[in-house]
Every structure is written in structure tokens, then in C-alpha cells.
Write a structure and sequence with these properties.
It is a single chain. By secondary structure, the chain is α+β, with helices and mostly antiparallel strands. It has 2 domains: about 40-145, Rieske [2Fe-2S] iron-sulphur domain (Rieske Iron-sulfur Protein); about 170-450, Naphthalene 1,2-dioxygenase Alpha Subunit, Chain A, domain 1 (Alpha-Beta Complex). It is built from 14 helices and 21 strands. The protein has helices spanning about 25-35, 160-165, 170-175, 200-210, 215, 220, 235-245, 250, 285-305, 305-310, 355-365, 375-390, 430-440, 445-450, and strands at about 10, 15, 40-45, 55-60, 60-70, 75-80, 95, 100, 105-110, 115, 145, 150-155, 185-195, 255-260, 265-270, 310-315, 320-325, 330-335, 340-350, 400, 420. The chain has a 4-stranded antiparallel beta sheet, with no helix packed on it. Strands 13-19-18-17 form a 4-stranded antiparallel beta sheet, sandwiched between helices. Helix 4 (about 200-210) packs across helix 13. It starts with 8 loop residues before the first strand and ends in a 6-residue tail after the last helix. The protein binds FE2/S2 (inorganic) cluster (FES) and fe (ii) ion. The site of FE2/S2 (inorganic) cluster has 9 residues, from loops.
Length: about 450
């Protein structure tokens, strides 16, 4: 049975019921209906360049192996032996021609096919009873697609293709992951840590919440944390509003600052940095300065001037983000209604010099990751928001997501810019994210989801 909370999300009044962050039944339904049908990031092609390379990850809570078979095709399948369900590998990554289960020795090749069963002749009499050995390979994720090196997978065969699913979010994503047309890669090290908050608070923060930056990150800003940054410079009014609070009106009226929300829940806030604004703040090495300029020029040449100027915060539904100022991929893996395992991949433009890549890791770890200043600021809030939602009295009262809901500030369509509302401050992106979340929780099929007209919040 599919649960239908009558007032989980109230789009007319901008209200969100707190139970969606803590209720166990809702969470179980979310794993099926949302994570079981969405395109989920499972790794980067640069992690598995050679035949036999693999990485392990999770899709929702499902343990998954992503591997390249001997003919070069990338597969994703459940890391669970078909005999008694044991994991067939316990490694985070590696290279092998086959996976032998450590329980009784059933063995699978790098495409997931079952290639050996101990005693197959003598004990099984070459008869699997139900089906043949071909039917007992590892359980495949039926849809796997790449977007400029990022690998996404989907359990639902009827889901739209990845590009259709991305919609206008692809406008931003391409510039970020393939700035110079040579592709991207990720560092071998992936940061992983666990926090006691619901995964949606993180996604909601990244999809549209610039509002928190003035207060949540004030102490980091006062401590001078932003005196050096590779994220470039905003328009002065917006930068001041973010740093100090206030001057919101001026910042909101900047026509080059807008927010975008898409049919399938992705979104972000984008500022097109002024043409003469510096590409970084504070001191950086000469090599880094040269690289940043060269990358900017390459994007302009390949994708046009607007995308060369983007500064963004953003998220792809349900649990993925690329932080524009920190060159990191964030994935929030659900581990229970009140627990999230956060993963950060360091993302590099393939054309960047090796020294620049090392500097990017060093620099960006200061912001996000278990020791990142901004990460620690953010997580504290998400943990307490989650905890409060467990209490009987607090749960009677929904959360307020009404900022900007009634503003009629749609901007005219313009070449190479997505459907957008003026100003990066507003909670319409978050409401749009929850609209899609609720639709997925209720919809029987992707056909139903696709047929609904897109009415942006
Ligand atoms: S559980 Fe894998 S071989 Fe038995
Ligand atoms: Fe933040």
C-alpha cells in the first residue's frame, strides 16, 4: 500500500510536514518509490578506465557494484550473491576478472554473469532447477547512462532517458563537468562520513537555500574563511548580502542573478559574474590563476558567454549536487530517516595540470567535507531540524517554505538561459523539489509522472 500524507506538502501555502523527515514508514516508501525510480549517481568513468575495474556504492540503501567488463561496457549490479545473498566484494574499488563469493564460492564475471558454481557437475547435476546458470547472474540495474563521464543508474526500465530527466539542469551540468570539452575526472579519494540528519535537509539546502548563508556561515565569514576562494566573485550587492545580510533588495534585482527549477525537481541559484569580476578571491598560485582564466575562456568559446560566468549552488533530484565554488560532487546516501552518509568526490577538469588538481583538493577541503568549515556549519542545523521533527508537539506544526512563492518574477526566455525567476533568494526551488518528491511517492509509474504538465512552483 502506498502511503498518502494528505498534507505532506502544501504548495499553495508553502508548508512542509515534518513527518517526512523522520517517519520510518515514509522512509521505506521513499526507498522504493523515489530511490527505486530516480537516476542516481553511481560513480565516474575515470574511476574505472580499464576492463575489470570496479567501484562499489549504494543506490538508496542497495549495495551496488559498478564495473567495466572486458569489452569496455559499464554495468551496475547488486552486490549480493544469488545463492545466500552474501556480498561478492567488500572492497571500495579494485580490478578483477571475476568476483568469487566468500561463502560457497559462486563466481561472477565483470559483466555480472554467473560463470562458476563449485560442484556444479557433481552436486547440482548441471541443473539449476529453476532456469539455467544464465538466469542466476548478479541482479542488474537495468538502466546505466553517462553524462560527460558521470555515471548514473536507474532501477526503473520505464524511466525517461538521463538527458530528458536532467532537463534544463543539463545546461549547468555540462559547463561544470566538461568545461573544456576534454571531459572530467575525479580524485581517487572519496570522502565518506555519517551524520544524524535526514538526507532531504541537505538536498533542500543545496537546491535553493542561499538564505542561510548570511547567518549560518557568518562565523566562518567573520573568521576570514572566505578571504581566499576559487569560486569567483559575485556581483557586489549579492556578495555583500551573502556575507553581511541586508541589501537583499539590490541583490534580488540583479537581472544576472536567478533561480531555476525543473520538471523533475532539480534546481539551483545562479549568478552570472560580471565580465570584469575576478575569477578568485585572495592569493592563488600563478599556475592556478592561469588555469582559471584558461578554463573560463574555453567555456566561453565552447558553450557561450553566459555559462562562462556562472557561480551556482544547485542540486539534482534526489541526492546529488555539484558545488560550483568548490568543484566537488556531493551525494547524500540515505541510511535511515535520521541518518545520512555523505560522500564527496573531488572533481577535476581533465585538462587541468596535476599541480592545480592537488591545489583544488587542498583548497576545497577547507569548505566542504568532514573538516570543511561550511559543512560543519550546515550539518549542525540539519541534525537539529531532524531531531525536532521526532517530537510529538513539534510535529503538529509544519515548516514554512513560503519565501518568494507569490512573487511574479518570471524572466523572459532568453537564448541559452533556462526558464527562471529573478533573484537567488526564495524557497520556490525547495518547494519544487518537494513537489516532485511527493509526486514520486504517490505515482504508480513513470508514465504517470511524465504525463503531468510541468507547473513550476
Ligand atoms: S552465498 Fe554466495 S556462494 Fe553461497
Ligand atoms: Fe551552507
Amino acid at each position: 500500500m502506498v502511503l498518502k500524507g494528505v498534507k505532506w506538502i502544501d504548495l499553495d501555502h508553502g508548508l512542509v510536514d515534518r513527518s517526512i523527515f523522520v517517519d520510518e514508514e515514509i522512509y521505506q516508501q521513499e526507498l522504493e518509490q523515489v530511490f527505486g525510480r530516480s537516476w542516481l549517481f553511481v560513480g565516474h568513468e575515470s574511476q574505472i578506465p580499464n576492463a575489470g575495474d570496479f567501484v562499489t556504492t549504494t543506490m538508496g540503501e542497495e549495495p551496488v557494484i559498478v564495473s567495466r567488463d572486458k569489452s569496455g561496457v559499464v554495468h551496475a549490479y547488486l552486490n549480493s550473491c544469488r545463492h545466500r545473498g552474501n556480498a561478492v566484494t567488500r572492497a571500495n574499488l579494485g580490478n578483477c576478472s571475476s568476483f568469487m563469493c566468500s561463502y560457497h564460492g559462486w563466481t561472477y564475471d565483470s559483466s555480472g554473469a554467473l560463470i562458476s558454481v563449485p560442484g556444479y557437475k557433481e552436486l547440482y547435476h548441471e541443473d539449476m532447477i529453476k532456469g539455467t546458470r544464465d538466469d542466476w547472474g548478479l541482479i542488474k540495474v537495468p538502466r546505466v547512462e553517462s553524462f560527460h563521464g558521470l555515471i548514473f543508474a536507474n532501477w526503473d526500465e520505464t524511466a525517461p532517458g538521463l538527458v530528458e530527466y536532467l532537463g534544463e539542469y543539463g545546461w549547468f551540468l555540462e559547463a561544470r563537468v566538461d568545461p573544456q570539452g576534454h571531459g572530467s575526472e575525479v580524485d581517487a579519494v572519496v570522502l565518506k562520513w555519517t551524520m544524524n540528519h535526514n538526507w532531504k535537509f541537505a538536498a533542500d539546502n543545496f537546491v535553493g537555500d542561499i538564505y542561510h548563508t548570511t547567518i549560518t556561515h557568518k562565523s566562518a565569514n567573520l573568521a576570514g574563511h572566505r578571504t581566499r576562494s576559487l569560486g569567483g566573485a559575485q556581483a557586489p550587492a549579492e556578495a555583500e548580502a551573502m556575507r553581511e545580510g541586508g541589501r537583499y533588495t539590490e541583490a534580488q534585482s540583479n537581472p544576472d542573478a536567478f533561480r531555476m527549477a525543473t520538471k523533475y525537481g532539480h534546481g539551483g541559484g545562479f549568478t552570472l559574474r560580471p565580465a570584469d569580476a575576478p575569477l578568485y578571491r585572495g592569493e592563488v598560485s600563478e599556475q592556478m590563476a592561469t588555469y582559471l582564466q584558461q578554463r573560463r575562456d574555453a567555456i566561453e568559446q565552447r558553450l557561450g558567454p553566459n555559462r562562462a560566468r556562472i557561480i551556482a549552488f544547485n542540486a539534482m533530484f534526489p541526492n546529488f549536487s555539484i558545488n560550483s565554488s568548490a568543484e566537488q560532487i556531493h551525494v547524500w546516501h540515505p541510511r535511515g530517516p535520521q541518518k545520512t552518509e555523505s560522500w564527496i568526490y573531488f572533481l577535476f577538469d581533465k585538462a587541468a595540470p596535476e599541480e592545480v588538481k592537488r591545489q583544488l583538493v587542498w583548497e576545497n577541503s577547507r569548505h566542504f567535507g568532514p573538516a570543511g568549515m561550511f559543512e560543519q556549519d550546515d550539518a549542525d542545523n540539519w541534525i537539529l531540524s531532524t531531531k525536532a521533527a521526532t517530537s510529538a508537539i513539534a510535529r503538529r506544526h509544519p515548516l514554512h517554505y513560503g519565501m518568494g512563492l507569490k512573487d511574479n518574477n518570471w524572466l523572459e526566455p532568453k537564448e541559452d538561459l533556462p526558464l527562471r525567476r529573478q533573484g537567488t533568494w526564495g524557497e520556490t526551488n525547495q518547494l519544487n523539489f518537494y513537489r516532485v518528491w511527493q509526486d514520486m511517492m504517490w505515482a504508480k509509474s513513470w508514465d504517470e509522472l511524465r504525463s503531468q504538465p510541468f507547473e513550476p512552483v
